[in-house]
Design a protein that fits this description.
2 copies of one chain form a homodimer.
Chain A (H helix, E strand, L loop, with lengths): L2 H14 L6 H8 L19 H32 L27 H14 L4 H20 L26 H12 L6 H26 L11 H10 L33
C-alpha cells in the first residue's frame, strides 16, 4: 500500500464518515502484495557482528546445511536487524544449494550462499553493478580455493575434535570434500565431515563480511588473485583476441595436466 | 501488519477519537516489514504457460544472463500472476549466478536458477521436503548432462542461426561451454555462444516446468537416471558401507579415466 493510498483511506474516514462496509477489506489491503515496493538492488548493507554471524552460520549448517547457513547468517541477520526489504526473502530458499546444489556435488553450497548475499548487497542487473559484486564474489571463491580450510573454531562445537584443514584448489563440493576425506581418512558421510563443512560455512561468512565491510568503506582489495599458472592458461584460452574457447577462472591445474586425477596428460603441442 | 493490529488502529479511531499525531506514523506502519507473514516453504505452484515462460527465460538471458533468466521465468511469472509472497523476492538477486556464479565457470547458472525456483515450490528445511525438491532438481541436472542442448528454437531469435547442440556430460559451465566451443569452433565470448546459452536457459525452464506440473499432479518420475558407469563408481565411493569418500552424483567419466582430459589415467588396482 502506498503512502498516498493510506492517507486517502484515513482522509475518507475523517472527512466523509465511515464508508467501510467490511473490516476484512482493510485487512486484505494491508496484507496486499508489495510488487512496487522493493528497492532496486543493491540493498544497503548494515554492519553486522562477525562473531555472531559466524556462530549463526555454523549452527545454520546443522539446521539447513551449508548454503542456507551461509545465506541466512548474513541476510537472516539483516532481516532481524533491519527488517524490510530483507524480510520478503525466505532464507530457507537457499537450502536448495546443499552439498553442491541438491546433493549433486557441484559448486560448494557455502559459496553459493555467500555469493547470493554479496550480490544482494552490492550487485544489480547493470553491468557496473554486476562487476562490483563479481569481483567480491570471485575473491571469496579464490579464498576457498587457496586457503587451508576450515579455520573457524566454534565456541561450543557440536563435535569437539582436532580439525585437519585442507586446500581444496577448487570451488567444487565434490573435489573439496574428496580431498579432505583423502587426507583425513574420515568418511564423506560422517559426523566429522559434517563438522568440517559447518566450520567452512562460518569461514566463508567471515571472509564475505570482511569484504563487504571493506567495500562499504571504499577500501575493498581482493586478497586472492588468480594463480600465475592459471593466468598463463587464461592468456590463451580465455582472452578475446586469442583462443577464447572456454569460460571461467577456477584453478586449471586441479583437473588439467598437473592435477592428481590426470597428471599424466600433456598439453597438446603448439 | 497483522489483521488484529489493523482492527486495533481502526477501533482506536472509532472508539476513542483521533489519537494519531502524525500521518507519517500510519504510512510507516503500513510499509512495515512482514517478517511473520511469509508462508512456510514450499510456496504453492500455479500452472504457468510453458511457451511464455520459455520466451521469458530466453529474453531474460539477454537482460540478466542465464541464472536470472531461469529464475525469473518461473518466479517472475508467479509474481505477475499470483503476487504475494513471490513479490518479496527480487528476481534480480539471481544475476549472481551468471556464467557459473559471478563468471567463475562453476555450476551452470541456468541450472542454479531453476534449482532455486523448484526448491521454493517443492522444498523446505525438513528432510522430507528437501528430498522431494532434490529428486526433481537432480533430474534437471541430469537432463542437462545427458541431452544434446540447446533444443529450444525461439519464435523471434536475437540471432538467427543454425544451432549445433552438444552433450555437456556435466552441470559445470566451464565444461559445458568448452565442449560446445570445441565442436562448433565458435569463440566463448561470441554472439553465437550467447545465443546458445540463451536457448539452454529456455530448455532448462521448459524441463523444470514439465517436472513441476507432474509433481503437482502426483505423477513425477525422473526421466534421467544416473548412468550405469557412474552408478558403478558410486557403489564404492559414495556408499555408506563402502569407501564413502566423496560427495555428489555428477558423471564420473567426464573428468576421471574415460573423459577426454585424462583418458590415460587408470583406476588404481583393487
Amino acid at each position: 500500500m502506498k503512502r498516498r493510498d493510506a492517507l486517502k483511506i484515513f482522509g475518507g474516514i475523517l472527512g466523509g464518515g465511515l464508508l467501510l462496509t467490511s473490516s476484512s477489506w482493510i485487512a486484505d489491503n494491508l496484507n496486499a502484495s508489495q510488487p512496487n515496493k522493493l528497492p532496486q538492488l543493491p540493498w544497503t548493507y548494515k554492519s553486522i557482528d562477525p562473531k555472531k554471524a559466524a556462530e549463526r552460520a555454523y549452527f545454520g549448517f546443522y539446521k539447513g546445511r551449508c548454503c542456507y547457513g551461509a545465506f541466512d547468517a548474513i541476510i537472516g541477520t539483516l532481516q532481524d536487524e533491519v527488517g524490510f526489504p530483507f524480510t520478503g526473502i525466505p532464507t530457507e530458499l537457499f537450502v536448495f544449494g546443499r552439498s553442491g546444489i541438491a546433493e549433486t556435488g557441484s559448486t560448494c553450497g557455502a559459496l553459493i550462499g555467500v555469493a547470493g548475499a554479496i550480490f544482494l548487497l552490492t550487485g544489480g542487473v547493470d553491468k557496473e553493478k554486476q562487476d562490483r559484486a563479481y569481483k567480491i564474489i570471485q575473491d571469496v571463491f579464490r579464498f576457498y580455493e587457496q586457503e587451508a580450510l576450515p579455520k573457524y573454531i566454534p565456541e561450543k562445537p557440536k563435535l569437539n575434535m582436532q580439525m585437519k584443514a585442507t586446500v581444496a584448489n577448487s570451488p567444487i563440493c565434490h573435489i573439496s570434500v574428496s580431498k579432505w576425506c583423502a587426507v583425513t581418512k574420515f568418511k564423506a558421510a560422517s559426523k566429522e565431515r559434517d563438522e568440517r563443512c559447518a566450520r567452512i560455512t562460518a569461514d566463508c561468512v567471515l571472509y564475505a563480511l570482511k569484504l563487504l565491510e571493506a567495500e562499504y568503506k571504499g577500501s575493498f582489495k581482493g586478497a586472492y588473485p588468480i594463480k600465475a599458472k592459471t593466468k598463463t592458461c587464461m592468456d590463451c584460452h580465455d582472452k578475446k583476441d586469442a583462443l577464447n574457447n572456454t569460460k571461467g577462472n577456477m584453478e586449471c591445474g586441479t583437473c588439467h595436466f598437473d592435477g592428481k586425477i590426470n597428471k599424466t596428460t600433456k598439453h597438446p603441442p603448439f
